[in-house]
Amino acid sequence: MTVPGTAAARPYDVVIGSGLAQAVTDAVAAAPGAGAGGVAIVHADALAAPAADYERALSTAGLRVTRIEVPGGESAKHTGVLNQIWEQLGAFHLGRDGCLVGVGGGATTDLAGFAAATWLRGVPIVQVPTSLLAMVDAAVGGKTGIDTEAGKNLVGAFHPPTAVIDDLAALATLPVAELRAGMGEVVKCGFIADPAILDRVLAAPAVPAADSPVIAELVARAVAVKAAVVGEDLTESGLREILNYGHTYAHAIEKVTDYTWRHGEAVAVGCVFAAEVAHRLGRLDVAAVALHRRAFAAAGLPVAFPQGAGAFDALYDAMTSDKKVRAGRLRMVLLDGIAQPVRGVEPELEVLRAAHEAVTAPPAGADAGDPA
Ligand SMILES: NC(=O)c1ccc[n+]([C@@H]2O[C@H](COP(=O)([O-])OP(=O)(O)OC[C@H]3O[C@@H](n4cnc5c(N)ncnc54)[C@H](O)[C@@H]3O)[C@@H](O)[C@H]2O)c1
Ligand SMILES: O=C(O)C(=O)C[C@@H](O)[C@H](O)[C@H](O)COP(=O)(O)O
Ligand SMILES: [Zn+2]
């Protein structure tokens, strides 16, 4: 699959398959500079074994290679870890004709991508996502960045990769709770653009096995949604905002829980929150709101945030850091129907509060609000 080029970026391929080690070496060879200035593999600690395999293959191809290990997960999206990467790139003398390779979940590809965007004011990166979430979303589209005290992803750059290698074999070692979290972004794509995703998830309510054809189909469908959008609007000046469906509330959940909620879990509740807002504005009917709860729950995801009960002010404060805010006004992506996203809706505070109450009340007779 190819992500179309824009005025600001070249087109690039997202290769989806199993056993794609050679594709990583080929992608580095095809990047501008072909890795001649050195190749630095930035990988999460849990991915040391595949990173070592890529290192061997790249060395065998005659390239100078180093590995930079970072902690897996959100805690690595910080200036301290980024600084260590910069120091190691300096010691390795990675040149403008060098290349980074990002290996890990979305936190690692966001971090490695930002290191690539900033080192020497920008060097190529080949992204090798190893979580479901990173394969369908984080590694595709060029949003890179880190978190700050003020909030999530507040420092970053648009820096598209030169290739993305989605090796589904990597999912074999991914903990099931992480696989489930990745379904949050997959189901989001179902609501904003591809209802066939919702049909698949509802037809078999369980997290699909990592090596199943269902996962392969869902990855292809979700990547197609993302590729089409970022191919039209890399820098989020318009259409790309639809990929942020559910994220206004999701990022607030992540911040107020100190990132103990996984991103994909928070996105699931954030989409239910957005549906509740849309319902109160007369945009979505009760059935569409219920469909949100059924689809995310079918994928094993939370559809409520009971811990947030009474915490509206803290969540609202976090929501005001949302990048879609303009002139101090919170702007949301909502739906006018399934696969009919609308951008730039400015709900009144009382609507937000009511939607918050609807998602913080524990669902009757269920415990679907707690992440695993
Ligand atoms: N840039 C974007 O467009 C974009 C899009 C969506 C999400 N994101 C970001 O992505 C991050 C979430 O990504 P995530 O859900 O992948 O979480 P993550 O990167 O935190 O990974 C979760 C854990 O799984 C481990 N892991 C990853 N792949 C593994 C594998 N194959 N085997 C064993 N362990 C593995 C990681 O090292 C980590 O400990 C968030 O920071 C979010 O903001 C960015
Ligand atoms: O690619 C995008 O654009 C998205 O909004 C995809 C989101 O799933 C992703 O979590 C993104 O990192 C959020 O970006 P932010 O600009 O709200 O920080
Ligand atoms: Zn997201």
UniProtKB/TrEMBL annotation:
Main location: cytoplasm
Keywords, ordered alphabetically: Amino-acid biosynthesis, Aromatic amino acid biosynthesis, Cobalt, Cytoplasm, Lyase, Metal-binding, NAD, Nucleotide-binding, Zinc
SUPFAM superfamilies: Dehydroquinate synthase-like
Pathway(s) per entry: Metabolic intermediate biosynthesis; chorismate biosynthesis; chorismate from D-erythrose 4-phosphate and phosphoenolpyruvate: step 2/7
Residue span, 3-dehydroquinate synthase C-terminal domain: 182-325
Cofactor: how and how many bound: Binds 1 divalent metal cation per subunit. Can use either Co(2+) or Zn(2+).
E.C. number(s) listed in UniProt: 4.2.3.4
UniProt-annotated binding residues for NAD(+): G106, A107, T108, T109, D110, T130, S131, K143, K152
Entry-linked InterPro entries: Dehydroquinate_synthase, DHQ_synth_AroB, DHQ_synth_fam, DHQS/DOIS_N, DHQS_C
Subcellular location per the Swiss-Prot or TrEMBL entry: Cytoplasm
Domain 3-dehydroquinate synthase N-terminal: 68-180
Residues reported to bind Zn(2+): E185, H247, H263
Necessary cofactors: NAD(+); Co(2+); Zn(2+)
Catalytic activity, as annotated: 7-phospho-2-dehydro-3-deoxy-D-arabino-heptonate = 3-dehydroquinate + phosphate
Role summary: Catalyzes the conversion of 3-deoxy-D-arabino-heptulosonate 7-phosphate (DAHP) to dehydroquinate (DHQ).
NCBIfam families: aroB
Entry-linked HAMAP family: DHQ_synthase (MF_00110)
PANTHER family in the record: 3-DEHYDROQUINATE SYNTHASE (PTHR43622), 3-DEHYDROQUINATE SYNTHASE, CHLOROPLASTIC (PTHR43622:SF7)
Similarity-based family: Belongs to the sugar phosphate cyclases superfamily. Dehydroquinate synthase family.
Protein name: 3-dehydroquinate synthase
Native source organism of the sequence: Actinomyces ruminis
Gene: aroB
